[in-house]
Amino acid sequence: MGGHIDCYLDVSSFYSYMALSSLLKNRDLLASHDVTVEFHPIFLGGVNVGSGNKPPWTLPAKAKYGKFDVERTKKYHDLENASPPDFFPPLTLLPQRALCYVKAHHPQSTFDQIFLALFHALWDLHINITLPGPFTETLETSGLFTPSQISDILSATKEQEWKDKLLDNTQKILDQGAFGAPWMWVRNGEGKEEPFFGSDRFHFMWTFLGVPFRDVEITPPKAKL
Question: What is the pLDDT of residue 225?
Fold first, then answer.
């Protein structure tokens, strides 16, 4: 037992929102089984281009089915207010570069909280965090940063170091075989490593890690009196 999960996310990805929420909820339980979790920002547009993948909504049949899947997934993860904003799909270079900087300069808890807050802003509140003004307001309302720290974050998004860091993260998972997000690279207690994709394959991940869990099962009908 034991292991580590590297989870790669972009705030433009609905299923990344679901994965982040689920892993954060289960982080303490995973830690009790000696499994650690770390989140990393990537640029999904770069993953799509680099892998040759196309967003699911570009195929009419997938887009039609996706409406059902999204509603079911929202209900399962208790995030029923999430929906695509009018400006979808967003170009997320600004928030993703900022997250690279925050991850390097702030505590893990702060990084995790602002990552979740940015997903919430985009998907639940439909705030266009790809623009400097709304993005800054989201940082301010989060209560996680001082004005000086917010200024540093905004400046960092224009610096080559953090542009390169986002590119490096993106290229890393492309080299692992990624074609979308959420992408997870998992190492189990035996040192074996495997990729996992999506927010609906956690049961496969728990099995790989040796983490006990209750699988989805059909129960017999209640006895009639």
Answer: 66
